[in-house]
Amino acid sequence: MALTNREIADLFETVADMLQIKGEVIHRVLAYRNAGAAIRDLPRDLRAIAAEGTLTEIPNIGDTLAAKITEMLETGQLQFYEKLAKEVPPSLVQVLRINGVGPKKAKLFWQELGITDVTALEAAARAGKLRDLSGMGAKSEQKIIEGIESLNRYTGRTALGVALPAAQAILNHLMKLPEAVEGAIAGSIRRGRPTIGDVDLLIASDNAGPIMDAFVGMEMVARVLGHGPTKSSVELHNGLQIDLRVLEKARWGTALNYFTGSQAHNIRIRELALKKGLSLNEHAFSPVDESGTIIEDAPKILCATEDEVYATVGLPWIAPELREDAGEIEAAQEGRLPRLIEISDICSDLHMHTTWSDGTLSIRQMAEAAKARGKQYIVITDHSQYSAIANGLSVERILQQQAEVRQVDQEMGPDFRVFHGVEMDIRSDGTLDYPDEVLAQLDFVVASLHFSLRQERAVITRRLLNAIENPHVDLIGHPRGQLINEREPADLDMDAVFEAARKHGTALEINANPARLDLEAQYARRAVELGIPICIDTDAHSAEDMDKLPFGILTARRGWVTAESVINTWPVEQFIAWTQNRGR
Ligand code: DGT
Ligand code: CA
Ligand code: CA
Ligand code: ZN
Description:
Elements: H1 5-22, H2 26-40, H3 46-52, H4 63-75, H5 79-85, H6 103-113, H7 118-126, H8 138-154, E1 158-159, H9 160-175, E2 182-185, H10 187-190, E3 195-196, E4 199-204, H11 208-216, E5 221-227, E6 231-236, E7 241-247, H12 252-260, H13 263-275, E8 278-280, E9 285-287, H14 306-312, H15 328-333, E10 348-349, H16 363-372, E11 377-383, H17 395-411, E12 417-425, H18 436-439, E13 444-448, H19 457-469, E14 475-476, H20 494-504, E15 507-511, H21 521-529, E16 534-537, H22 549-558, H23 572-580
Parallel strand pairs: 4-7, 10-11, 11-12, 12-13, 13-14, 14-15, 15-16
Antiparallel strand pairs: 1-3, 2-4, 5-6, 6-7, 8-9
Helix pairs in contact: 1-2, 1-6, 7-8, 12-14, 19-20, 21-22
The chain binds 2'-deoxyguanosine-5'-triphosphate (DGT), calcium ion (2 copies) and zinc ion.
């Protein structure tokens, strides 16, 4: 069987992990790891690149690795891996994906207890066998159980930040065909879920054949899982699965509604339809008799738009981001659907980094980039001194930085304002990284947790409250500290966090970076219900990062957030007045 890019990337990454457990020097480990990552990002089949003889033009692939790729493509195997597998069990690398388990611990569990996979490790942890190993204890044993539980929750889902651009690119490509009349991304992407299982695309056309042929023939396709007249499915080189359905324009509304989901929402809509004597599926509404059987000769109701679908069941159109059966049906019935925030409502960005800390552009360049994206004001918020790895600013440097911010603010003219702030660390001991006298000199203060995120609930909650309660702190950045598919949120008492934010009027961030999406929707919704101000920021470290705002908007909309609750919809005078009236 032919190996795909993904399988070759997986194998290189497994080799990297095995070498690391073995205790190899780090540059050899990284050579395989970086090669794996480069292959994972390739939009083209390795086979085609190998045929052209240009494997070494791939980043991080030299002659040695190119020869190994060729070997895998030709034989479906890698001798080097087979040899290594006799020294280190390949299944052991899976335990490295558990939060808190590194190569040293993996080796320890394997050599002391003969553990070679996650299942065995979980059994040993639950049986209390890990706590007596050197460097372990009851607490670290419990952490491993929790890590395994969260690992099980992640498997198989792709981050929205990866899936959405891929889906959009494919749809754009197919929509160039003359046969394609209308197109949409449906499924969990349209609802803005932070992670997605597979991509669902819909295209309206009277002639599906050429569209399906183009779809399964795309260069980025690794495997065709199905190729039919109305539905085709493919797996891309990076492992992402895409379903495409082609249908007549006359049925667009029912299809888009059905395949957008969620399933729970669909079930509620179908129940409403049944109450009106109609059965609903992805194709149409069909009249039913009292027993619920479809009346064969009764005319079906086709809906070309989603508006018509909702109108047929007696509802106004419901935004896709709300379709989770989380109260949206009731709100629609009672005429109290929120007017959700839109990207055009946002006129500022209050969290971004420059070359003063770990950003890639100067203050002036960030200002220009934000202005080019239609913003009216920004706050420069570089890291504070505790974030030494991010080149955080000492008190002396941040005061120096202020002069440059004021200079750029002048240069940009009166229609674009640049304010001076900071993203200040909340240190592990709970203290804030700058004294109040320094904070008082800044226009806007973001406070964030970056370190010791696995502290106990009471401890880490107290840390965050210290920041929320400080009158100089305006905003809590990425409050829960999660990284999508990588790191669980901190164990915060969110009731206490919300109560303090409400009492002190401290804003909470929806960080738009698709690696974070923090606050998540359900917490944003609670915050808004409590009247806590929300800030949707890009946390940009480059100009491109500013283009990730839509992910924050999607998350906010999933959280029922309206423009009124969001600080960065405010005119600059209102923003200034708010910061100045916050008890400083
Ligand atoms: P995912 O892919 O796991 O991130 O989530 P979805 O929501 O994209 O789910 P998917 O791809 O399985 O199906 C797309 C939509 O199609 C789903 O949101 C609702 C609809 N759908 C699929 N299967 C069923 C079903 O058995 N019943 C109902 N009512 N709807 C379904
Ligand atoms: Ca899906
Ligand atoms: Ca699907
Ligand atoms: Zn930041």
